[in-house]
Amino acid sequence: xxxxxxxxxxxxxxxxxxxVPWEKHQITEIFEADSxxxxxxxxxxxxxxxxxxxxxxxxxxxxxxxxxxxxHYPHTKTIVISxxxxxxxxxxxxxxxxxxxxxxxxxxxxxxxxxxxxxxLWRDEEAERLQAARQNxxxxxxxxxxxxxxxxxxxxxxxxxxxxxxAMREELGLPEQAARCVVGVMTLQGSGCRLVQRFGGDxxxxxxxxxxxxxxxxxxxxxxxxxxxxxxxADITLxxxxxxxxxxxxxxxxxxxxxxxxxxxxxxxxxxxxxEVDIGLSRPHALAGGLQPAFREACRGLSERNxxxxxxxxxxxxxxxxAPEDEVPDLPALLDKLSLAVLSGDGDKMERAVDEWxxxxxxxxxxxxxxxxxxxxxxxxxxxxxxxxxxxxxxPCLNSEGGFAPESWSRQLKxxxxxxxxxxxxxxxSKLIQEIKEYLEQNYSRELTLQHIAERFFVSRENVSRKFxxxxxxxxxxxxxxxxxxxxxALLQNTALRLSQISELVGYEDEKYFSRVFKKAxxxxxxxxxxxxxxxxxx
Length: 539
Known about the structure:
alpha/beta, Rossmann fold, 21 helices, 11 strands, Alpha-Beta Plaits, elongated
């Protein structure tokens, strides 16, 4: 804590210095000024928490100084020491929050009592401010989660717009006159999953960053809100409504606003991360009761885009549609040919069947995402019958423009067939450790202990630790630390979040402990790493 003594008489300043037991109260610095003007300069430079001031001084008197302190440094505690007891002098001290008004000549006991009262008052209020700041920080972390859930319920029909409207107006900027909106949906699989890869494959982290980017665009004129969707069919859902200054809310105005904002979101993503994503848009619907069908329309707009011919990355809903099973006319014949090749066990036959299939797909006039998903589901059924013990995963194989990449799909399927043909060599222990790693990947932001993991997977702590080290070559705690540091690196490099927010997102409640762990792992503090990677400052 620092103190400033302001008086044009040096012997008064010396007396205050002499009588108050500064060390007892951990006062680290004491400044002096002989006028209110010099006091203002010291306040700007050092910002002392406690000020002792006279009332009658040259240039700027005590009354002016008290008013200035009240306006610029409202948390500062002031003690007035004056040779005058007229109300004319006492009034500013009362009006601008002085803690005590002492008369000269100075009474040492009164001075010490007034000083100790001011010190304690400042410490109590500072403790309250820190507590409020911590609570606000927690609220800032939890508020997006609340809106993710509340708006997902609203879009799914499980919440009432009438009940949410006041909070949406206050916190999300929903205009008073807004009656309609367009719903948009985005997935993280577009652009070859490059954005997800940028964040180490963490879908939750990527969706958090993407929602932030969207809301930076939407908040410019208060024209909507983006949230992480709890509904299948979308990772991010967007609500577009006409901004407050719009003269008239018509269906066409809302539609044009949504399309313009969707383009701006892609521009922001391209500028920040070098990618664009596909966005499906609904027609304008009523905010009250119309969001559920609007969400379905947006999902259809996205799923019915032609993966073979990208068209601007923005896909409004359209009525006309083709049944997904009809998009690949000879799908049954292609499946039969691959099934026969698989049963024969002949690797060359399997690869030729895949090449023929990829060539047929590349030559189609239309292949929508829903049609592609239908084809992948049929293919997975065939492979699952062949290897029922395997967990068959088929990636979407989209290129950087969001279109289908036949060559990539062919390579992926050939590699999968070769692996399945060799059979599964995974031991029970390997499978257990893989499940633990997947659990850590999904829950690294929570408090995780070895005991918690052992109970979660019904094994002893000793077995978990020993088997993890045997199979992975590293301790479980080191693996978890590496995972968290990796997530933190991605956030430091790609966002401007405060370090306290990042530490909570990656599982550390204590920012200082997080910084020590980060430096031990990387050789750099989080701030040094952020500066090295070129992210400018914190928000």
